Amino acid sequence: MRRFNWLLVSAYILATAYFVSVVPRNLPLFLLFMGSVGLLYYFKVPGWYRATTLVVLLGVLMPALGTRNTFYLEVATQIGIFVALALGLNIVVGVAGLLDLGYVAFYAVGAYTWAIVGSPQALQIFPNATGIFPLGGWWFFVFLLLAVVTAAVTGVLLGLPVLRVRGDYLAIVTLGFGEVVRVLANNLDKPINFTNGPIGITPVGRPPLFFAPLVERLGLPATPAALYPLYFYFLVLIVVAIVIVVTQRVKDSHIGRAWEAIREDESAAIAMGVPLVRSKLLAFAAGASFAGAMGVLFASKQVFINPESFTFMESIGVLAMIILGGVGSIPGAILGASLVTVLNLQVLKQFSLSLNAWKAAGVTIFGYRLADLPTQLEPAKYERMVFGIILILMMIFRSQGILPSTRRRMELEDAHGGAADPPADAPARGPR
Amino acid sequence: MEWDILIGILPSVVIDGVVTGFVYALIALGYTMVYGVLQMINFAHSEIFVLGAFVGAEILLILQAQGMLTAFHPLLLLVLIVVAAMVASGLLAVAVERVAYRPLRNAPRLVPLISAIGVSFFLQDAIRLFESLWRNAFFLTYPTIEFFDTRLVIRGDVDISVKSILVIVGAILMLVALTLFVNRTKLGKAIRAVAEDQSTAGLMGINVNQMVSLTFLIGGAMGGAAGALFGVQFGTINPFTGFIPGVKAFTAAVLGGIGNIPGAMLGGLVLGMLETFAASYMSLLTGGAFGAEYKDIFAFGVLILILMFRPRGLLGEIVREKV
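Above: the input entities. Below: the structure tokens describing the complete assembly.
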């Protein structure tokens, strides 16, 4: 039977794609369609088949369906951004075992790096440079690379003083750092206006539509409004692909081994000759650099950024993603990012909308009129509660995540119920 | 010259600093006690603190709605809300430990910390949900009680409000009671024994789980009292109020030496003072370029500096890592 798995999977993909294209506004159908990526991962199919189907699925079907309902393309782009963020944080938390609660700060650094020079905001800092700023669209690609560097440098600067401290202190310091960056972004509108304070920066420059004439020649609509969502979708897709390849390769390199050694036991790692501080700094820088690149993409995609996008909430959201998926595991991070983003963007919003519709329609549940519910009750805004429950339940019942990395799974099975149950005061195993 | 202004506001800055410092000290106790016993950061402690503030606000608001706010002496009201807040927060802390931390006691270190973050987020929205359903608003304001806002003139133009005095006195009373409890009673000794070495304490006939629960009860009660006092002092609260005071109180606990009870008190006071001084003088000294909004950054800067130069804190002892 296994030989025909690929037929099954193809049939599933084509069927869901067809139904989504017929009923573009049906959310469950779209979710089923997105589930086909998971199917590809889960079913035993030949490698060449998996690769080509993935390319067709994400490179052709997804954008094609996206043109029928742009919102889905937006969702897919968001998922891509969070996948990259989750993979970056996964290096720091999952592979190297350093709990970073201020990860979104690096995302902010990347976003502001491009937003300031790619918008008229830079003129506030250099009033005489009217001919230079805002930088043209081609600079976007330069800054995509530059943000990788600035974010990595920020990571090193933060890491230098704090990486000598123990794990749970590190958590609080990084949390503080995240807040510091947000407070700075909020207040650096004086004495020199760098960030325009809480009002935020707009319009942030976008990459040039150099391929627009080509699209026009093909007889397709080539307006910016039609092209940019697709454009950003593909940009994010490319960056995510690069990020996945890089994390995969790094994880199996000697640096990755050093990180895992540090996570398992710092003292033993030092004894085996792992340069502790240098490896930790490298982990911080690597994780930060992904966030920096994604920050540039995010700023450009949104055209507008303000400090509200970079709160502690976002850091915890990304953390929830990798914990849900499985700390240290790359497929886990991808799955977690997709689940949490879909939950946030669609399920909760949908529930809010339905609730409001029910209220308006005067629906009653067990004799209680929903219209009597207070107006402050807005399910879409209760993402904290959802994240909180995810984090607690995952920790208690499945702390290895949905798709755990092999090593992590063995370690936790060992710590939980194995024959060698450590006494209560034994030095905590694993990351500290 | 500006010097006159700088000196002129000094007394009120010191008073503000002391008040803030005592609130931080009370919250910091919860962090430090739990850390001393379980070596974990109870991230949810800031929400336990907020629950205290909400319990206090609800009691006063309900009394106000009944028109009974003036029927009691303000001091009696204060005692009432502080005790109620202590009970509610203490019980919540025990429940949180029971549900979210105890099953994870032998897990790797990050696991209970992440669970604690989850609890913190859950509680923020749980309080918000409850208040949304109950009052259709989750930003609450403490009713004004004139007695609390009366200002007593100390000398010349230096005055202090009654509520500031009450916060200071209340905090000192609780700190003294806690110190006596931990150092002079049998239960206190048992808690210290568990903090020292859980398995040996168990072998000596101490019920470790009970002592951990007791630690959470006391730490939570202190946090709840801090919440009610915070509400009386600053007036407006919301479910997310606890985050910043929580992080700062943790900074205070680290500053004083985590796990060390007098250290948490000292750390709270020092941090409160430093921060109030920074908030009041930064704007004056930099000609308005950097204002009070940077005081949070200042607190985090202090935290990073301590961790760099004196990671065991002001009063902490050197702990050798067990290998």
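Note for the figure: The beta strands of chain A are 364-365, 368-369.
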